[in-house]
């Protein structure tokens, strides 16, 4: 029986087939089992001999079967390893990394510019109290200046901030002047019920600036804004201040920068005026200081508020503000810092 099957088993190539032959030879209905069952009919001295022989054949067969089984299993593993080999020398798939949004780049640049001049960078809540957005900024209820900023109200007292100026009030309130002057900028998102068009968005960015100390003059304001405009728009720029009105500054100004395209001669970018309006500013109104418990006879300062969206449009010649908010990668990847 062993000799008959030994060669056959060694040539089997599938685990299923091997299992079938194992059941045939060693199973309950197999020849060895039936020999062992027939032992009871044998004589006492035949019984141990036949028994020992049957056991020997059974052990030999099962050894051959087990050996073949592990060979076949190993072959399956080898086959798998071969087909699943990773070629580590192949070049990888390129991973496209994102890049900071162009407006974030403009704001980062302004932040490092002002940090270099000793300003702190502070951020505040976008859901703001009427108290900080308007009242503390010298705009009481029913003041006509509220119409200058169409506002999204949430409740009577809560609103989506319409400017970053409430951060002036929040910082002044907390500042300890025995520790030194207050110098801060506050970048962030603001909201207005403006109809979206090429130059207006209902959600856009602002960056507030505020300096409070003794003996701050309008010359400090002008020097600071000139340095900033030259940093952003080029070293040859000049600025001019035009009288304006904001409830929280007195006097108030609109700031124009000399056109970076034509140098002030007149071109389509500056609508042939030579000047481009870039931000609002002024000397902090005494009422705003008093509302924050600051002695307006001793301390004073300047504030400004600029729009990074408009800065980016000017700097890169972008003619539609909506390009910043429509997530078109063909537009956004032009400003990739990796080039
Ligand atoms: C203000 O919001 C004042 N808080 C600025 C200020 C601060 C003045 C401190 C004095 C002292 P204004 O409403 O002009 O001012 O807005 C400031 C800037 O925000 C504008 O110059 C413009 O760049 C930008 N801006 C205003 N409305 C929109 C809009 N709908 N979409 C995009 N940018 C806007």
TrEMBL record:
Which GO BP terms sit in this record?
phenylalanyl-tRNA aminoacylation
According to the UniProt record, one GO cellular component term is: cytoplasm
Instruction: Extract one GO molecular function annotation from the record.
Output: ATP binding
Q: Which residues bind Mg(2+)?
A: 250
Q: Which InterPro entries match?
A: aa-tRNA-synth_II, aa-tRNA-synth_II/BPL/LPL, Phe-tRNA-synth_IIc_asu, Phe-tRNA_ligase_II_N, Phe_tRNA_ligase_alpha1_bac, Phenylalanyl-tRNA_Synthase, tRNA-bd_arm
Family in the record: Belongs to the class-II aminoacyl-tRNA synthetase family. Phe-tRNA synthetase alpha subunit type 1 subfamily.
The note on cofactor binding and number reads: Binds 2 magnesium ions per tetramer.
Q: What is its EC number?
A: 6.1.1.20
In its UniProt entry, what is this protein called?
A: Phenylalanine--tRNA ligase alpha subunit
Its recorded reaction(s) are: tRNA(Phe) + L-phenylalanine + ATP = L-phenylalanyl-tRNA(Phe) + AMP + diphosphate + H(+)
Q: Which SUPFAM superfamilies match?
A: Class II aaRS and biotin synthetases, tRNA-binding arm
Task: Name what cofactor the protein needs.
Answer: Mg(2+)
Which Pfam families does this one have?
Phe_tRNA-synt_N, tRNA-synt_2d
Native species of this protein? Lacticaseibacillus rhamnosus (strain ATCC 53103 / LMG 18243 / GG)
* Record keywords, A-Z: Aminoacyl-tRNA synthetase, ATP-binding, Cytoplasm, Ligase, Magnesium, Metal-binding, Nucleotide-binding, Protein biosynthesis
Q: Which residues form the signal peptide?
A: none
* Subunit: Tetramer of two alpha and two beta subunits.
Q: Indicate where this protein resides in the cell.
A: Cytoplasm
Enzyme class, broadest EC rank: ligase
């Amino acid at each position: 029986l062993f000799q008959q099957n030994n060669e056959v088993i060694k040539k089997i190539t599938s685990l299923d087939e091997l299992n079938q032959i194992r059941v045939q030879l060693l199973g309950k209905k197999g020849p060895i089992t039936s020999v062992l069952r027939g032992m009871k009919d044998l004589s006492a001295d035949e019984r141990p001999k036949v028994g020992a022989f049957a056991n020997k054949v059974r052990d030999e067969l099962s050894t051959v079967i087990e050996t073949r089984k592990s060979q076949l299993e190993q072959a399956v593993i080898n086959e798998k390893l071969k087909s699943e080999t990773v070629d580590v020398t192949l070049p990888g798939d390129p991973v496209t990394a994102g890049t900071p949004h162009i407006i974030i780049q403009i704001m980062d640049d302004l932040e490092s510019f002002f940090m270099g001049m000793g300003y702190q960078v502070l951020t505040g809540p976008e859901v703001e109290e009427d108290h900080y957005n308007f009242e503390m900024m010298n705009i009481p209820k029913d003041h006509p200046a509220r119409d200058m900023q169409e506002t999204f109200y949430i409740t009577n007292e809560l609103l989506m901030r319409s400017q970053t100026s409430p951060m002036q009030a929040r910082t002044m309130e907390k500042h300890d002047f025995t520790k030194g002057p207050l110098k801060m900028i506050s970048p962030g998102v603001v909201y207005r019920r403006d109809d979206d068009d090429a130059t207006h968005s209902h959600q856009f960015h602002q960056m507030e600036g505020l300096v409070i100390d003794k003996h701050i003059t309008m010359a400090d304001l002008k020097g600071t804004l000139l340095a900033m405009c030259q940093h952003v728009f080029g070293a040859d720029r000049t600025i001019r201040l035009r009288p304006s009105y904001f409830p929280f500054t007195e006097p108030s100004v609109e700031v124009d920068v000399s056109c970076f395209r034509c140098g002030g001669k007149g071109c389509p970018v500056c609508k042939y005026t030579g000047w481009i309006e870039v931000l609002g500013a002024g000397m902090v109104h005494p009422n705003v200081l008093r509302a924050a418990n600051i002695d307006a006879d001793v301390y004073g300062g300047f504030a400004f508020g600029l729009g990074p969206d408009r800065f980016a449009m000017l700097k890169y010649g972008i003619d539609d503000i909506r390009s910043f908010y429509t997530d078109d990668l063909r537009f956004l990847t032009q400003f990739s810092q990796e080039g």
